[in-house]
Amino acid sequence: MAALAARDIHAPFAVQAATLPDVLAGENVLGRARTGSGKTLAFGLPMLARLATTGAARPRQPRGLILVPTRELAQQVNDVLAPLTRALGLWMTPVYGGTSISRQISALRRGVHLVVATPGRLTDLVERDACLLDEIDITVLDEADFMCDLGFLPAVKALLDMTPADSQRLLFSATLDREVEVLVRSYLPEPVLVAVDPEVSQVSTLVRHAMESVDRNAQLRLITALAGGAGRTLVFVRTQRDADRVAQALTEAGVPAEPLHGGMPQGARTRALAGFTDGFYRVLVATDVAARGIHVDGISLVLHLGPPEDAKTYQHRGGRTARAGADGADVLVTVPAERGKARSLLRAVGIPTQPVPTSPDDPLVVELAGPPAPPVDPATITARRQRGEGRREGGRRDGGRREGGFRDGGRRDGTGREGGHRRGGPGARTGADGPRADGHRPGSRPARSFTRPAPRIEPQPTPGG
Fold first, then answer.
1. Residue ranges of domains in the chain, CATH in brackets
2. Residue 332: count of CB within 10 angstroms of its CB
3. Of 183, 268, 318, 440, which shows the fewest CB atoms inside 10 Å?
């Protein structure tokens, strides 16, 4: 209780109140709740309470497993649960690509109670005989629909097959689509359904707007005006090039901004999130992978540079603001060529509005941006970035001394993409020795032979052109 009180948590949110009794009773739980509803503590609190009764941590044999789709989400789940593991005397480690696998192996050999993992890196560790899953008591699949969207379904199924069939399993997902149903039917016998929101829901404290600019240059000027306030702003774009371009344009306009996308080394992504969290960067310009991995308090405005691929992505983007009852605004900024897609998108999510021609000096833009922040010299922003790039990567180390009841993965620059691979899309594996989609190379070291079957993802064809 003291650890929760220290974070100013005194009463449960709806999803937590609905979930805790069933998880503590040992039931399999199928949870559906909107983004930002408090799902991490909904499964984390009862999970840690159960692990606290399992005794000392064993080498290579964790008792709890949390599977998540992206590196950022793995680290942030770890950060949310770390104070609670300290309070309970439990050991925890996050494992994901783009960081030192040798340090993760060392942490597992010393013994941890709980692993927070992306499927690709955990598969690699299992293949190396560094992690055994036959003693898992409780497994959580977080953002299961996004894991399936990223092509992780085969790996997730193979990993679940390694856990005891009678162990407890919790699945949390914003939507329960067909691939998620496959997991439920195969691995969650007689689950208790916890659904505190409809599958397509609007956050009551989130105000959505749709604006239209005359061309791409005007669209960028409008984004700059909206992001020029003193609050935190998250801008979503569809490509890595757009993320770099928009962040650079904002920086040159005196708005501290940083991109976040899968083409960046892991260390650069970690620094971008840290700078956004501590307030130096007022704007983060992100591709959609960040829609499920970012948890930063106080984001007051979410901007979309053009319509996203689908309604589900639009919903999850907007979920980065107006979290846990706070107010927030969401603005879709389009150009005339995108008018039809924008109308279809808004209609699909039940929003009774259409893109309205808007200029940067429109009173609504001024209102949404809030009090203007003083411009920052672009040289100052660039100097901070260069200082970060010049520091030796490493961060907290698995192999270092223990601090407060949990181990944390070392942070080093990696070159791979976060998340999984889309079937036939960019980042799909092209052969046995190709880079895995979450940033490590399984072929870099031979797997040790052992009798337990190891999960493998079949190579998938690369897209033409």
1. 2-199+395-444 (3.40.50.300), 206-376 (3.40.50.300)
2. 27
3. 268
